[in-house]
Write a structure and sequence with these properties.
Blueprint (H helix, E strand, L loop, with lengths): L1 H23 L14 E2 L5 H4 L30 E16 L2 E20 L2 E22 L8 E24 L2 E22 L6 E24 L4 E10 L2 E3 L3 E8 L5 E8 L3 E3 L1 E11 L3 E11 L5 E4 L5 E4 L6 E10 L14 E9 L4 E2 L2 E2 L2 E13 L11 E13 L7 E15 L9
Length: 439
């Protein structure tokens, strides 16, 4: 019981740390986060960041796989696993002849997992869903009969959405595992556009879009494993996330600020303004001789018919469908361990990883399809061994991954983004539930 309480308080402390980190950085500098829910998280963790997020068919008793809750069924019965990750990101944004760099740091995820009973596992944690963060401006002459007055348009946005989840995985028969995550989903979205003028006698205008979101989120997963040969296994992983309407409202303020700083505003409110998409995932994972894993995933998110609030003609703020495109993602990855079962040296336990992915954008930019994303990744899992053990080689794993992502627009005039990321994850795997017998 003391260990259970320690786990609970540790998770609470990690969540507080995450909120403090979020207050210091928004985790994004992309103007594309201005649209929809912002930039979507890939849901990756330390073990699969180096494999471009491949996860649906992956299962390992020493790792928590949030993307398919059926995998919790294989969590080791003697271990408590704690997992957390941090990303350092450098972004280069280009449009026309202009270019800028931006850096961000963000805590990616926090998770814990342990076995409740043989073939029955539980996971708890915190996962991001999306981030919003940008600040940009443009200045041009005011077309009002004079060339001496300029107008500056300033755009800012911040916020994001995330969830706290609890999940369970069960293996009713040796080949089949099923699981589910239930989560509290919440966040805030804030966007503002300010028009100011070089002539102090002209009133400024500010438009603000705001929303606070809170609802539930449900994810389901299945994994079916079939032995092909004595050394080879093939696992089919399927996932589904329930799409549904969110009952929260969105607000729009249209402010006019006079030269004497006296503001007047019109306010519009839209109820039931948001929805979460139905999401389907399918993946195949091939494991050879316990030291080689190869995976291929496909994800489909049905955004196309979802409603979302926005400003329409005649300054009418409303929530309408057809603001998005369906999202498609294909990812492939590989992991190689030199000698996991009979290692006599440290380097034989290192996990080498690589991956590649393609993602189509769910957003529309001024009515046009948003940019596509191409990503390549590589990483290692480095075991941290205090002393050599003969009882299963349990140890903390330091996961380090590097990613290069290119966000390529489909239409001229849009922004091209290039990202370099370094992700560091720690997976603590200790035998907290191992009881010594005294003879």
């Amino acid at each position: 019981m003391n260990r259970t309480l320690n786990i609970f308080f540790l998770i609470v402390l990690m969540l507080i740390a995450h909120q403090n980190a979020t207050a210091q950085t928004n985790g994004s500098n992309s103007p594309y986060s201005r649209y929809g829910f912002g930039l979507l998280s890939d849901g990756g963790q330390g073990f699969n960041k180096g494999m471009a997020g491949v996860a649906y068919g992956m299962s390992d008793g020493q790792q928590i796989n949030y993307k398919n809750p059926a995998s919790y069924a294989d969590l080791d019965s003697l271990s408590m696993i704690l997992d957390m990750g941090l990303t350092l990101q450098n972004a280069n944004l280009k449009q026309g002849g202009r270019s800028m760099n931006a850096r961000n740091t963000s805590i990616d995820y926090l998770a814990a997992g342990f076995s409740l009973h043989k073939n029955l596992g539980l996971s708890l944690g915190f996962m991001p869903f999306s981030t919003v963060g940008y600040e940009m401006s443009s200045t041009a002459p005011l077309n009002a009969g004079t060339s001496n007055v300029t107008q500056t348009q300033s755009y800012t946005g911040n916020g994001g959405t995330h969830s706290i989840y609890a999940g369970i995985g069960w293996r009713p028969i040796s080949q089949l595992a099923v699981g589910a995550n239930i989560a509290y989903f919440w966040g805030s979205l804030s966007h503002s556009v300010t028009a100011s003028f070089s002539d102090a006698g002209i009133d400024s205008h500010k438009r603000v879009y705001e929303a606070d979101i809170s609802t539930y989120k449900l994810d389901f997963g299945v994994q079916y494993t079939q032995a092909i040969t004595a050394k080879d296994k093939l696992t089919l992983g399927l996932t589904y996330s329930l799409g549904h309407d969110i009952p929260n409202s969105a607000k729009y303020y249209n402010q006019r600020i006079s030269s004497s700083n006296v503001a007047s505003a019109d306010t519009q409110l839209v109820s039931k303004a948001f929805s979460l998409p139905h999401t389907f995932g399918a993946g195949l994972a091939w494991k050879h001789n316990e030291n080689l894993r190869v995976g291929l995933d496909y994800t489909l998110q049905l955004w196309e018919r979802l409603k979302f609030p926005g400003l329409k003609d005649n300054d009418v703020f409303s929530a309408e469908a057809n603001s998005f495109n369906n999202l498609h993602k294909i990812a492939g990855g590989v992991e190689y361990i030199p000698n996991p079962s009979r290692a006599t040296k440290w380097h034989q336990l290192i996990r080498y990883r690589a991956g590649i992915s393609y993602t189509s954008s769910y957003i529309k930019v001024d009515g046009k399809d948003g940019p596509n994303s191409f990503l390549v990744s590589a990483g290692v899992g480095l075991p941290i061994v205090n002393k050599w053990r003969n009882n299963g080689n349990r140890f903390t794993m330091l996961n380090i991954s590097a990613q290069y992502e290119r966000v390529a627009p489909r239409h001229s005039g849009m922004i091209t983004e290039n990202y370099l990321r370094l992700t560091v994850g720690l997976t603590f795997d200790e035998r907290w539930f191992w009881k010594l017998k005294v003879k």
